What we know:
Elements: E1 5-8, H1 12-24, E2 32-35, H2 40-50, E3 53-54, H3 58-64, E4 67-70, H4 74-84, E5 93-96, H5 103-110, E6 116-120, E7 130-136, H6 142-152, E8 156-160, H7 166-174, H8 176-193, H9 198-218, H10 223-230, H11 236-246, H12 249-270
Parallel strand pairs: 1-2, 1-4, 2-3, 4-5, 5-6, 7-8
Antiparallel strand pairs: 6-7
Amino acid sequence: MNKKIAFLGAGSLAEALISGIIKSGLISKEKIYVTNKSNLDRLKYLEAGYQVQCRTNKEELAKVADLIVLAMKPKDAIPSIESIRPYLTNNQLIISVIAGLSTDEIERAVGIDIPVMRVMPNTSAMIGHSATALTPGKYVTDEHIKETNQLFQTVGLTKIVPEGDMHTVTAISGSGPAFIYYMVEAMEEAAIEMGLDAETASVLIAQTVIGAGKMLQQSGETPAVLRENITSTGGTTEAGLIELASHDFQRIVTSCINRARERSIEIGKSK
């Protein structure tokens, strides 16, 4: 891809994407630019680690970039966009990874008919296994979608979704890894309480989660069928599932996802 890309924001998600792009060879290091609000140490770290072009002047980057990735904190998004507005043209593509910020809001903040892609990756991008949802703004072409897919496929799987679904996507794939880690924490704690050493518990549970994920991806079966295949009448799995059901496990998970989705909506409204 013969493009210059600028990251406005230099956090872990930006780093994951930079790493994926460089490993894939999609864009050369000298065409990757990074800036942030004020953390110069972070810029020095990225420049040393990835040999990308780090700058403190985001207006300068807005002038030269073909692709502009908005990767700052949600509260900083609109002021940052407005500060670079005079330097933007509709020949550029804006890619936002900011939770709760719609393509319409970004288009209004820019003030011109500029193509905007809204993207929701997750932290598994750090190891190339993100589940990333993409949604196009009204001025996006098929070529823009292709370019965004190429970028985010360097860090995992991508899926186009309607913008109306992005708050739900934020809850299940954006926040979802944290919910799974929380369950793993609880499983590890239970195993240790029952006498298993911590290292053994950690290794076995991590591989169990990986294996279950692979089965979901590769078996062609639904989660319900996979669960039923493990569950024997009167067996250990059934006993554990009955205990989960007695504590209304499904309702708790649904409530968790719904609250995360509501918070995404609240963040969007607060800008």
